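Re: export button greyed out
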Amino acid sequence: MSEIAIKADKLTKKFDDFVAVDAITFDVKQGEIFGFVGANGAGKTTAMRILCGLSKPTSGSATVAGFDVYKETEKIKRNIGYMSQKFSLYDDLTVMENITFYAGIYGLSDKEIKDRGESLLSQLGISHEAKTFVASLPLGWKQKLAFSVAVIHEPKIVFLDEPTGGVDPVTRRQFWDLIYEAADRGITVFVTTHYMDEAEYCNRLTVMVDGKIDALDTPTNLKKQFSVDSMDKVFYQLARAAKRSGD
Amino acid sequence: MKQLLAFVRKEFYHVFRDKKTLLMLFGVPIAQIVLFGFTLTNEIKNSRIVVADYAHDYASQEIIRKIEASRYFEVVKSNMSHDQIETAFKTGTIKIAVIFPANFYNDLSHLNKAQIQVIADASDPNTATTLTSYLNNIITDYQAQKAQQTKVPYLITPEVKMLYNPELLGAPNFVPGVMALVLMLICAMMTSISIVKEKEMGTMEILLVSPIRPFLLIISKVIPYLIVSIINLITILVLSVVLLHLEIKGSLLLLFFESTLFIISSLALGLLISVRAESQMAAMMTSQMSLMLPTMLLTGFMFPIENMPLPMQVLSYALPSHYYYVIVKAVMLEGLGFMSIWKETLILAFITTVLVVINLRSFKIRLA
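Workaround output, generated via the alternate export path:
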């Protein structure tokens, strides 16, 4: 648990005059579930895009799985998984076809695809739905499937960008069971969210306000630090100072 | 390689599972060929022609039989006076009249020349010109036939001076235009839509985060449409031959080679649109306005380029479809070989290369 999966040092991203990410510094340990909490427009998604190799930082440094975000984005991409808020499955493909496609672009062999695909389906309890078109699946299932697909190539780190938008807390809880299982297998989970019940599930988390990181600790310690009894209140205290409005 | 296969297979699922896409891909070419081939033709069939035969001799009868046999005319035999013919024109019941003077055969056999009068309703100049040229063609044909039988050539001079322009005859001219139009529509529009769809759905992000290379992504997007386009090309050619009785005079191989080149340039244009457009609707509108309309109006298959104002002419020479149209016309209708179209091919290849290079660069920019 001591190895560093993600390391960011004064990482900054500017769009013209607008500083989206303002000199953030943090470490994420291997196998940890690390939460990035913040209001809309706080800079969470921009920070995540830099770490995924989708966007180049303006200044500062960062490594993901030991690779540099400036020069080694191709290597980073091979070692990470990604799931966005749109959970990004193809509606006109069946469940199994989606699995085959995503596993295929990560270069898994036919046998690996078949084995992992089947175990994934039985783990989710939807083996009988392998030939169902994704369009007709319920939202909660789509999310679980999208997550399983994002880690099908057993990446070192998986990035989840507001993965549980639009579902009820019970479904969200089930989704988190999957995240815990992945973390148990040693996959580092980097998750952004603005649901406070979700924030409680993280090993450690940071609250991002106006592009800056104001607090970073375990949920328990954060609550102690701010002398409150819930993450909601921690977030409220920090976000109250925000100047940017959500977009 | 395995990535490519997985990707291409997925693209084929998209194509073959969407009924609207399928309709666009396979219905449009067929509809276009039928529409353009049968309705937008310069050919005039079964026009009523008044034949006033004052000669009533062997030669005039023979020519009239030839006119009757032609599918362009429907003969009305009536020895009308000039006044009566004029009245008939005014009521619009006939389009053209031909008058054989008395002693037609006598003149022909003794003086070796004879005259007939052709009167056409020129209120519609295009129709008049076309009909007189058909008629002239029939008479020329008759003369040629007679010339073989006798040593001294007959000479029949119709009073109307006419230009015979074989290109005016019917549908063939539209087919190369329709080919350019359909291939551009499918390649550019469908490719741009399919890429923009991935942006809208959010799947593009996943693809960009994956280790798949942008170049591979582009190739996989393009391959299915390349194949579909070639199928379409075959459909159009078969329809042209079977339905429009068009003869493909030149090399089929050359035609396919040139078409593939054009398809690639259209695919590149589609990709270019997809980089800019943010919604499927925008992609569709951009393709239609910036590619389809110019292809229809400026390539020269509907309106002659020489008659356009200079800026439009310049624009026309910048269109890949312009060169493709010229090439297809040369190969398919005139049966010319590569030597006659190498210049156009070179320009088309150049445009295609430029488009592909721009694409590869803009795709990288998006990744940054």
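Chain B touches chain A through 24 residues (CB under 8 Å). The button fix ships in the next patch.
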